[in-house]
Design brief:
By secondary structure, this protein is an alpha/beta fold. Helix 8 (211-219) links the parallel strand 8 and strand 9 (224-228). It is 41% helix and 18% strand.
Length: 294
């Protein structure tokens, strides 16, 4: 992750502005402006870490938003060499120590924790799904079911958890879904138009819900198949049908997939299992910050 990219920079700045971190009324009234402190970021559960790289960038952006001298003072973010995004952290483990002006630490505390908790929650849930299908050839995919504005960070967290990113946005690939089929004159018409009008190098993937739609998609030249809301048994039957084709066609299963059945879908022979819950239902990881005067 390029934490200094303009897109991420704008996102982090907005988070600080949203919380009015530079106008922290309580801290400004109660804390000596010259006091320095050390903040320990601590895991309070077994988890997969994501977002640690954002911490120093948030402090740099805060200094840009708050011109007062305390925001411009030197700071250090120190973590053990074995602690970085994507590693498994243990309950009670110190993830990083920040040494900075006490006012700055207090003013940025909530934004730092919100980000780490949210992204680490996604990474932790993703790793749970990845572990559940270990030994199969399938890979866990994310979806576009993300919090508006946070997609780049949430998909990064999926990568930290060992998952694979699906398309980033609507311009990143061709995915013909049920509503496209309904409004586009039927499956064959939508598929034909996409194949004929696509740009060079674009693969056409189409969603099918039953064996009849699958046959129509294959006969129409679909280059990737998404098996939507099928049972594992139906997916296995569809996989066997697709694999009988002379050409290689990537297969994805989606819809109604939870931790309890994800392995059954993976063992049905698909290449990918997409799980919207990775980003729309991940529970925030339990992470705390202890701040003490130096």
């Amino acid at each position: 992750m390029d934490w200094k990219s303009s897109r991420i920079d704008a996102l982090l700045e907005q988070a600080l502005v949203e919380d009015q971190a530079a106008g922290d009324a309580t801290t400004n009234l109660t804390i000596d402006p010259n006091l320095r402190a050390a903040a320990s970021i601590v895991a309070r559960q077994e988890m997969v870490l994501a977002g640690l790289g954002a911490v120093p960038r948030l402090l740099e952006i805060f200094a840009r938003l708050d011109p007062r001298p305390q925001a411009q003072t030197r700071f250090d973010v120190i973590s053990h060499p074995e602690i970085f995004d994507g590693v498994r952290a243990h309950n009670g483990q110190v993830l990083a120590v920040i040494r900075h002006n006490a006012r700055v630490l207090l003013s940025c505390e909530r934004v730092i924790l919100n980000l780490l908790q949210h992204l680490s929650g996604i990474a932790t849930l993703t790793r749970t799904y990845v572990d559940a299908i270990q030994g199969t050839k399938a890979r866990i995919l994310d979806t576009r079911k993300t919090v508006p504005g946070l997609r780049a960070l949430e998909k990064y967290a999926v990568l930290c958890g060992g998952g694979t990113n699906h398309r980033l946005d609507l311009a990143s690939g061709i995915m013909i879904k049920n509503n496209h089929i309904s409004l586009g004159g039927g499956l064959r018409s939508a598929l034909t138009n996409a194949l004929e009008r696509r740009q060079k190098g674009q693969r056409v993937q189409i969603e099918v819900r039953n064996q009849n739609e699958l046959t129509e998609a294959l006969d129409g030249g679909a280059e990737a198949i998404l098996l939507d809301n099928m049972t594992p048994a139906q997916v296995k039957e569809a996989v066997e049908r697709i694999r009988s084709e002379a050409r290689w066609i990537p297969i994805e299963a989606s819809g109604g997939i939870v931790l309890e059945n994800v392995r059954a879908y993976a063992e049905a022979g698909v290449d990918f299992v997409s799980v919207g819950a990775l980003t729309h239902s991940a529970k925030a990881a339990d992470i705390s910050m202890r701040i003490v005067a130096e």
